[in-house]
Specification:
This protein has 932 residues and is of the alpha+beta class. Helices cover 34% and strands 17% of the residues. It is built from 28 helices and 30 strands. The strands form five sheets. A ten-stranded mixed sheet has the order 3-4-5-12-13-14-15-23-24-26, with helices on one face. Strands 7, 8, 16, 17, 18, 19, 20, 21, 22 and 25 form a ten-stranded mixed sheet that branches. Strand 13 and strand 14 form a beta hairpin. Helix 5 packs across helix 9 and helix 12 crosses helix 13. It is globular.
Length: 932
């Protein structure tokens, strides 16, 4: 079957392919003649004299750089969209960062400190006077100035009052991302289809997020009230900042509406009329920020869940092997605390969510009784019918998955191992590839604020990832478990449950959406209702029986109803009077309840801290499985009315100051610290960083360039080739390979390994891989060998259950991995550790934390070899067209294209593909030379 790229419509803004026949070239030109009223506010805005912005507070010595593709400008007028769709023309600064970002893949090998900014941009504070492109005082205010630089168009916001500074931040954000911000405030409310159209990808996007954060307007307001009430003066300041930020956004909405340079998507989706200018762009309000925050929190900062799937696979193991042996097998695959796993914090233990000696309160479902809770009801029109239901369900499962799964890396080296004696860091979030990008860049200078970096669009009142005057910080997703599943006993009917002994009604929360065709989305009229049943223990996700008793499974997340709380931590990070060193940095990020790994570097110190509200569980509760919703098994100190509880203290979170080096690629944080995702074993993509950075540190003299090269080299490596293939070939070559087909395949694989096992173009822009045949063979071989190696021993039912917990592969082109295709992020989730441990065991090599038994050939080296050779021959015989089937982006057999990164459209501007790299979307390279 052809693969389809997961799209999020306006992910799938179908401009102009679905615009009626007026998109003939001549018609476009005629239409644009009436639309070429100001293309941007800069055309009509009065220009102040270009003055150099001073940067006396910058301690980076021009050694801070960053990049964020595809470009700073994420807004486009209708005329610009039509020009892009018809001729490929780009609005200014819409795509100018894509080229330098892509070029690193073929340009990193000769990198020096002097050439870093061929691939990154100078991230110093301020703008030299000869680089000022525009200077604007938004809404005519005298207390704030927005200067944009010529090279990138990044806004440098300078305010003389706190209000003016935040007003400017809001205005600049709307200039760059208004349409995207509007899309995501509707996603957060589960209202995207009503706003942007009923395309299945829009349906999937709103279903994906609203299922996990089904908030009412009152809920959103309550979050604001709570954040202000519980944070003293900083809470009040955050509220004032948010109001000023919103005033700036709304001032831009009014100005762009009056000047008719608002984003053209509003016309294409029927919200504005291109001729009369009738229609309205709704002003933003405080609760919109919380709705936006709930989306970002769900995407990047909510570790845990999956307890029902865990239970199903455990039961399958126990069914096959018996309770004791089945549990042993399951635990060996779970790898809760694998001794061979790469960790961020060295030689220190931080026990969390460990396996209890005597589990209590488990509520495992009866075999075959689990059903997923229905979300969508009352389908009508184009939403009705099995095809429509299937399309939206599939879209919900893949919505934003490129952002949701693979997230972020960090390489930080302490000063005693660098050439300059100052720490060096290369780090950033891997947030997927979108057009416009989810993040935006900015510099903010004002009373109590001094920072430059990236923020999520619509939440950019503060820099969320970036640099201050003499320090920089970044984050990776950590994934520790802050979500638990409870089994609530039903009473009276399916919508009442026992809460502390009382039969209690579930709360029904609904969102009704209806849509009709628009120019952008021709999906016929339709409607449906999303319905979630909420309990004190969270929303219902599944139904089942436990010991014959009917239950509903719910998920309780510690950040549920608390997404707004993290604003305080970000406020502190931007405050130069608060963050003055590694200790105050750690205190700041302790106020962020998202599950992140935070990294810090200044001219003297480095630091790390793992954030999140980690609930203190009752003694004996195993976080891996559902437990009964009874007081004995609730979180300690849990208050249902506010969803607050006792949390583990900061000292219990993995943390460190001035370790020799830190790496993170969503790997295990520290010994004994269990994370919710499966796959923290002997082979993890974190090893690709660990091996390279450890070697650099051992040699000494680390530079910005050498650390970037280590990151870039790891970003082109095939993890399976680098860390698993050598042992596979040991088995294959344990006897002479006499079969000609197998021998030829082995030769190609060995040649590729000798060249480094990377997926690299033959030359820049060739769109052909060196060692293309070897790459094709491994891509075809991996799923075949995994199934042949493990399914006979596990049995088909248990093998399927285990693959539901952890997919077998996530190569760049793998549509069967959790990120889909064209997503960049690769090799986070897969069975590489299982294959590695099993093959080493069969070879008789030492294995720490082995699987419960040997699987390949039932432990026989010769039988294992036969399995590998037979699957290798089958793989070698597959054509490129079979391994890389065509999709809506690529023709069948185009290997480079199958791997390529696509900027998934969230608006009307389309971008070209770039060659695969496995690296952060926004990335900093920093080395501070002095300290305050």
């Amino acid at each position: 079957m052809p693969r389809r790229t997961p799209r999020n419509a306006l992910v799938r803004l179908r401009t102009p392919g679905r615009i009626p026949g007026f998109l003939k070239t001549a018609s476009i030109c005629a239409l644009m003649a009436g639309l070429l009223s100001p293309l941007s506010p800069a055309v009509t805005a009065p220009q102040a004299a270009a003055a150099e912005v001073t940067a006396s507070n910058d301690h980076c010595g021009r050694q801070c750089s960053d990049i964020l593709p595809p470009g700073q400008n994420g807004n486009a007028t209708l005329a610009q969209i039509l020009l892009n769709q018809a001729f490929g023309a780009m609005p200014e600064h819409a795509s100018d960062q894509l080229g330098p970002y892509a070029d690193l893949a073929t340009g990193y090998s000769g990198l020096t400190n002097a050439t870093i900014n061929k691939f990154f941009n100078d991230a110093s504070f301020g703008v030299p006077s000869d680089q000022v492109a525009s200077t604007v005082k938004p809404a005519g205010r005298s207390d704030v100035t927005i200067v944009r630089d010529k090279k990138t168009g990044v806004p440098h916001i300078t305010g003389t009052t706190r209000y003016g500074t935040e007003f400017g931040a809001g205005y600049a954000a709307a200039q760059d991302r208004l349409w995207l911000m509007d899309v995501f405030r509707h996603v957060g409310r589960g209202q995207l289809t009503s706003f942007a159209g009923g395309d299945p990808s829009n349906q999937g996007l709103e279903q994906q997020f609203w299922r996990h954060a089904p908030y009412t307007e009152a809920d959103l307001q309550a979050q604001i009230d709570n954040a202000v009430a519980t944070n003293g003066e900083r809470g009040k300041l955050a509220l004032d900042d948010a109001k000023a930020y919103l005033d700036g956004i709304n001032a831009y909405i009014d100005a762009s509406d009056k000047g008719r340079y608002f984003p053209g998507e509003y016309v294409l989706t029927g919200h504005k009329d291109s001729i009369t200018n009738a229609g309205k762009i709704e002003h933003f309000k405080l609760t919109d920020l919380v709705a936006l925050g709930s989306v970002i929190g769900a995407l990047f900062g909510s570790g845990g869940g999956g307890e029902v799937n865990n239970a199903i696979s455990l039961l399958a193991a126990q069914e096959k092997y018996g309770v004791a042996k089945g549990t042993e097998v399951w635990e060996s695959f779970r790898e809760r605390n694998d001794p061979e796993a790469v960790v961020t914090v060295h030689d220190k233990s931080f026990p969390y969510a460990t396996r209890p000696d005597d589990p209590q309160g488990e509520a495992l479902p009866d075999t075959g009784s689990v059903t997923e809770e229905q979300l969508v009801h009352d389908r009508r029109g184009s939403a009705a019918g099995s095809a429509a239901t299937g399309a939206s369900t599939t879209a919900a499962r893949t919505a934003m998955s490129s952002a949701k799964r693979g997230m972020s890396n960090a390489l930080v080296v302490g000063g005693k191992h660098t050439a300059s004696g100052h720490p060096v860091a290369v780090f950033g979030p891997q947030t997927g590839y979108f057009a416009p990008q989810l993040l935006l860049l900015q510099e903010i200078q004002g009373p109590g604020i001094s920072a430059r970096g990236a923020s999520f669009a619509g939440l950019s009142m503060y820099v969320e990832l970036g640099r201050g005057q003499d320090y920089s910080w970044s984050a990776t997703t950590s994934g520790q478990d802050i979500i638990d599943t409870y089994a609530v006993e039903l009473c009276q009917d399916d919508h009442h449950y026992l809460y502390r002994g009382t039969c209690t009604a579930m709360e029904k929360v609904e969102q009704k959406n209806a849509w009709k065709p628009t120019t952008a989305d021709g999906t016929p009229a339709g409607s449906y209702t999303m319905r979630v049943w909420r309990t004190k223990y969270g929303p219902v996700t599944h139904r089942a029986t436990v010991g014959g008793k009917k239950v509903a499974y719910t998920t309780l997340r510690s950040s549920f109803m608390h997404e707004a709380d993290s604003i305080i931590g970000f406020q502190m990070l931007n405050d130069p009077d608060y963050v003055k060193g590694p200790e105050s940095f750690q205190k700041a990020v302790q106020h962020i309840n998202y599950t992140f790994n935070w990294f810090y570097a200044d001219s003297e110190h480095t630091a790390y801290y793992n954030s999140g509200d980690n609930p203190v569980r009752a003694n004996g509760v195993d976080a891996e499985f559902p437990v009964w919703a009874r007081p004995a098994y609730e979180w300690r100190g849990w208050e249902p009315a506010t969803n607050t509880a006792d949390y583990t203290p900061p000292s219990a979170h993995p943390n460190s100051i001035d370790q020799d080096y830190y790496i993170s690629w969503n790997n295990k944080q520290a010994k004994d610290y269990t994370t919710a995702p499966w796959g923290d074993g002997s082979v993890h993509r974190g090893n690709l960083l660990e091996n390279r950075v450890k070697k650099l540190v051992a040699a000494g003299g680390v530079t910005r360039a050498s650390l970037v090269k280590a990151m870039a080299d790891a970003g082109l490596a095939d993890l399976r080739a680098e860390d698993v293939l050598p042992d596979l070939l040991k088995v294959v070559n344990s006897s002479p390979v006499t079969d000609a087909t197998a021998a030829a395949a082995v030769s190609k694989l060995q040649t590729w390994l000798s060249a480094g096992g990377k997926r690299t173009e033959t030359s820049a822009g060739s769109k052909k891989y060196a060692d293309a045949d070897a790459i094709r063979i491994l891509d075809a071989w991996w799923p075949l060998l995994v199934k042949a190696e493990f399914e006979p021993g596990l049995g088909s039912e248990l093998y399927a259950a285990m693959t539901n917990n952890l997919p077998i592969d996530e190569s760049p082109s793998a549509d069967h991995g959790p990120t889909g295709s064209h997503a960049g992020s690769s090799f986070q989730y897969g069975w590489w550790s299982y294959v590695d441990k099993d093959i080493r065991a069969v070879l008789g090599e030492p294995v720490q934390g082995p699987l419960a038994q040997k699987y390949c050939g039932d432990g026989s080296l010769s039988a294992c070899r036969d399995i590998l050779i037979s699957t290798l021959k089958e793989a070698a015989g597959k054509t490129a067209a079979q391994v890389y089937p065509g999709d809506d982006q690529c023709s069948a057999g185009d290997q480079w294209c199958a791997d390529s990164i696509v900027q998934r459209t969230l608006g009307g501007i389309k971008h070209g593909k770039i060659s695969w790299q496995n690296r952060p979307t926004y990335q900093q390279v920093v080395e501070f030379t002095s300290h305050r």
